[in-house]
Amino acid sequence: MSVLVNKDSKIIVQGFTGSEGTFHAGQMIEYGTNVVGGVTPGKGGQQHLEKPVFNTVSEAVKETGADVSIIFVPPAFAADAIMEAANAGIKVIITITEGIPVADMIKVADYIKDKDCRLVGPNCPGVITPEEAKVGIMPGFVFKKGKVGIVSKSGTLTYEAADQVVKQGLGITTAIGIGGDPIIGTTTQEAIEMFMNDDETECIVMIGEIGGQLEADAARWIKDNGNKKPVVGFIAGETAPKGRTMGHAGAIVGGSEDTAEAKKAIMRECGIYVVDSPAEIGKKVKEVMG
C-alpha cells in the first residue's frame, strides 16, 4: 500500500498548457504516471501532450473520473484553483505554486475543511510513489520502491533523503513534500499518521525546518501513539538568524520551540532518531531498520 497516489490514481493538471504545467506534466507522463487530462479555462476541447484539455475541473472529473489534481496555476489564481478542485470532488489536491497570499490560503483552509479531500502544499515538490506515480516536480530517477516513507518540508531534502536511502540498498513507499508555507494543507503529523497506518512502510524519515510547531506536534503524536515504527528526523536551519525568513515563507523563528535546537530536543525526547546532518539520514535509516 502506498499513500495518497499510486498506479490507479487518475491525475489531471490544472494550468496544463502553461510552461510549468507543460514541462512537468510531460515529465510525469514519461515517468508512467496516469495523467488523464488537464484544465486550462478557454482551451477546452483541445489536445495537449496527447491528452484532453477541459475548461473546468468538474468537466474533467465527469469525463475522466479524475481523483487527483496537481496545480501549476499562478499565485493570484491558485487559491481559486484549489477550491475549484475541492468542489469538483477531487480527493487529493497537490499544489506546487509558490507565493500564494496568506489571506487566500486562510480562505482555502476554511473552504476545504468540510470537503472530502486532502490538500498537499502549497509551495511543495509534490508526492511520489516510486515506479507507480510521480505527481510533482521531483526527479523520478532518484526514487526506488521500498519500505521507507518520507515526509519533508523541504523539496530538495526530499530527494536528498531518498537518494541516500536508495544508496543504502533500501527504497521508498511514498515521499510527500508538504511545502514550506505558513499555511499548508497536510501537516507533518498527518503525513506521519498515514505512514504509521500503511502496512508497507516500516520506517519513516521526517525532515523539518525552523519555524512553526509542525515537527514538535508530530513528535509528541508519535510518542503518544507508542512509537509504532522507527522515525529518523532532521531539522534544517540550525545556523539561521532569529526573526529572519530563510528560503521558505514559513521558516522563521518566532517562539522558543521554533529553533532547530529546540525541535531536535523535543524529537529526541519523543524517541525519534535525530541526525545533525542531512548526510547521515541514509545511514541512520539502515541502522534503525537493522
Automatic annotation (TrEMBL):
Indicate the segments forming the CoA-binding domain, all copies. 4-100
User: Mind listing the GO molecular function terms for this protein?
Assistant: succinate-CoA ligase (ADP-forming) activity
Pfam families xref list? CoA_binding, Ligase_CoA
* Sequence similarity: Belongs to the succinate/malate CoA ligase alpha subunit family.
Report residues binding CoA. 17-20, 43, 96-98
Q: Which residues form the signal peptide?
A: none
Known EC number:
6.2.1.5
Instruction: Kindly give the Gene3D superfamilies that the UniProt entry links to this protein.
Output: NAD(P)-binding Rossmann-like Domain, Succinyl-CoA synthetase domains
- Source organism per entry reads Salinimicrobium flavum
Q: Tell me the SMART domains matching this sequence.
A: CoA_binding (SM00881)
- So what does this one do? Succinyl-CoA synthetase functions in the citric acid cycle (TCA), coupling the hydrolysis of succinyl-CoA to the synthesis of either ATP or GTP and thus represents the only step of substrate-level phosphorylation in the TCA. The alpha subunit of the enzyme binds the substrates coenzyme A and phosphate, while succinate binding and nucleotide specificity is provided by the beta subunit.
State where substrate binds.
159
Q: How does it assemble?
A: Heterotetramer of two alpha and two beta subunits.
> Per its record, how is this protein called by name?
Succinate--CoA ligase [ADP-forming] subunit alpha
User: Is tRNA processing among the key words of this record?
Assistant: no
